[in-house]
User: Fold this.
Amino acid sequence: MNTNNIGSISIYADHAEFFGISIYTDPINRTDRTEADDTLMCMMHEEQPCIWHTCYSYIAEAIAKSHGEIGFLDVGTGSGVFATLVAKHFPGQNILAIDKNPRAVKRAAENAKRNGVQFNISEEFYSQHTAPAHSCRTIGIYPPYHLYPVEYEMLVPQHARGGWDGQREFKNQLSKVGYHLADNGIIFFNQNCPGNEEGPAFLDYYQQLVGGKPSMTYTEILPRIRMREFLGYVYEGIDRPETREYIEMMCGQYEWNYLVNGIIKADGLGEVSTFIHDYDLKDVDWPYRAKIHNEISLVVEHQLRQQGK
Assistant:
């Protein structure tokens, strides 16, 4: 059970206010993005506030009981929302926020100043050199997971570009976090993940990538949805041969689509469990949620049309 008071949550196109902070970011449908000045992740009721609410108690316990010189490593900080939350709710922690996007680094610094907190910010790709071995009590990862045909790779904004199955960047980050995670430290994550009857696909690979038999517990933010239904929402209003082929390929490999928040703990037990969250989703359901993915698909469609395709 989360003991962090949820308070009021206000979400706008370019900023949000929740849990005592105010964060400015980008709207989801920004069309003037470039690789050097890419769009930051927008704020969504079922994303950042939900992640914080469902993971808060695990973060608090790891910060208090684990040992490591870095209280929080924020991988892909974006607008700096989670670094700001940790700095606000757990004063005095050594926080390192990193992002490869210069726009993100600038915005994270602005949001830190706006909220009266301080943390270290670095423009860099996540690597083994980011932090010393086993130095991080908590690590946050929120890799991109939009589902798209491989032909669209460079048209999808970086904050959504996680590989055709939405798992490439998640696997990439999981392969590094084990080096940085302190004993009994945690990784908290958010993922939209394809899967089958047994559960999300990440259950098949997370232990091998992190190493050391970590345990995992996760919650379904929304009840799982059939892959065909989900992709129907994602590509609504878009009819191209490559999207039709992609939908058939994905539905042939995966029956379900999952949206989850999860915690991985370096405890050596290798246990997997689920829990039911108590976060108030208000009116968020799958059709509403998938509109965000449809907006990304429409941004790609806009670029294709600009190219005369």
